[in-house]
Amino acid sequence: MQDAVVIKCGGSTMDQLPDAFFQAIAELQQAGRQIVIVHGGGPAINGMLEKLSITPAFVDGLRVTCEETLQVVEMVLCGQINKRLVRRLTQAGARAWGVSGIDGAMLTAERTAKPLGQVGEVKGVDTSIPTAILQRGYVPVIAPLAVSADGAETYNVNADVAAGAIAAALAAERLVMVTDVPGILRPGQDGTKTLVAQTDAEEIGQMIADGVITGGMIPKVQAALDALSQGVPRVVICRGTAEELRSVCAGQSAGTVIQAGVPKGA
């Protein structure tokens, strides 16, 4: 879908997204843009785990998900965050339809090799459901849960990873990762940080090795590189302001742009 834009909304940004963000999506939809939203919900999940006296655990920015945690993840993502986003989009004038990767086995996965419990690595994306939703004039709002190929297991999938896989399967022209920072930030000798406006796989690998990219930003850039390797032309990591969304959809730069083969110094 050459005019499709997949937008990943990070859980840390969920309560910070202004009405203008949703209004911009409504405007883009009304202008004929095919918009798909994939969302996280980390802080809300942590809040519910705390209420239930379950201690969250992470490895390399990925949530360790035992069976008890998985129940909380599914409840929060599908029952709370997903419907909140649909409601805000509807209030802004967009038409939105909330689903999860479990519905229709949209996302199939296998347990990740890392010791993370019920965390899945995406192995397949059935695009028929998001495509049907788009064709009916709605914005698909997708919670990042998946099932095993036989449907017997449910997996928590990192939202960045899910968004990258969905963008690649839809042959989207853009993947936009909305987060709580302006993009990839490089620390300077004076303690200040500067935005990396444009980068590529080689430089990202070096920034991870140097400790410039750490924690939750690691799965973001890895998902970005996976999407690029599967044909998505450009990935943008940004705050996702209304102005940035319009700029990205117009082919202009915003935040950190990641694409293949960026010459050094570009």
Secondary structure blueprint with pairings:
Blueprint (H helix, E strand, L loop, with lengths): L3 E6 L9 H12 L3 E6 L2 H10 L6 E2 L2 E2 L3 H25 L4 E5 L6 E5 L8 E6 L2 H8 L3 E5 L1 E3 L6 E3 L2 H11 L4 E5 L6 E3 L5 E3 L2 E2 L1 H9 L7 H13 L5 E4 L3 H8 L6 E3 L8
Parallel strand pairs: 1-2, 1-11, 2-8, 5-8, 11-15, 14-16
Antiparallel strand pairs: 3-4, 6-7, 9-10, 12-13, 15-16
Helix pairs in contact: 1-8, 2-3, 5-7
Pfam families: AA_kinase
GO molecular function: acetylglutamate kinase activity; ATP binding
Enzyme class: transferase
Account of the protein in words:
Substrate binds at residues 41-42, 63, 156. Keywords: Amino-acid biosynthesis, Arginine biosynthesis, ATP-binding, Cytoplasm, Kinase, Nucleotide-binding, Transferase. GO terms for molecular function: acetylglutamate kinase activity; ATP binding. It comes from Brevibacillus aydinogluensis. This protein is α/β, with parallel strands linked by helices and 266 residues long. It has one domain (4-182, 215-248): Acetylglutamate kinase-like (Carbamate kinase, 3-Layer(aba) Sandwich). Helices cover 36% and strands 24% of the residues. The mean pLDDT is 91.
Percentage beta strand: 15-25%
So how many helices? 8
Radius of gyration: 17 Å
Number of strands: 16
- CATH fold label: Carbamate kinase
| Domains (count) | 1
Please identify the structural class as seen in this structure: alpha/beta
What best-fitting shape do the alpha-carbon axes yield?
globular
End-to-end distance: 28 Å
Widest sheet: strand order? 5-8-2-1-11-15-16-14
Helix and strand element order: EHEHEEHEEEHEEEHEEEEHHEHE
Low-confidence stretches: none
Highest CATH level, the class: Alpha Beta
Q: What is the average of the pLDDT values?
A: 91
